[in-house]
Request: fold
Amino acid sequence: MKKLIVVVNDLERSGKSSTARAIAHHLKELEINPLFVTSNGMDMTDSFAGQFWDLEDQFEMSQLIGALDHHDAVIFDVHTGAARIFGEICEEGELENLLAELDTEMTLVIPNSQSERCNEEISDIVDIYADAADYVVAHLPSEGHVVEWKKSAAEKATKYLGASMIEIPAMSDDLKTAMENTELDFAQALNNPSALPRFAEVQVMQWLEKTSEALADGRDYLIPEEIGAVALDY
Reply:
């Protein structure tokens, strides 16, 4: 059973790109063969090692079929504002039936920045996709006002659908300093940590290691089944 892992949240700067890249790193560490895909053309820099799929023009289901033919998992970072577009594509293309034929399960990973707007967005995403997918809610650290998650409408909706909860670690002060000195945003740095200055590389890799430990809590929805005993036993 392969995995289509879709990282969605229509709020800007909600942590989608860094979360998606951390998942890609995590699967590679487990010797799983993922394809990383973005729907944001701005991601297509020299350091980006994945593919660009244009959801707003000329996206074909054949792209997804081909990707799943050659990879154990596809990680799709859906750009801000496109969660509903992808939902419409799924419905029109009868994606649920197609994935069943391809022996693939879809998991929606929703970063939660712990704001009221984010709770509302999560509730909306659940309404769009309902039980067509498994869910992982990735709680990100927040430096601002934190809205209660427990007993919120978003918590109730995702709990009803059996969502897995993970806690993404905060960036350390040393990591923040390293990022300031590289003049890259965090997602860009995650594209190729080995190309960073040594201090920044160490700090990024430490964050990725901690994040991999957190992602283990969502392994039932993130790790392809029956693809290597090592991956299933970690």
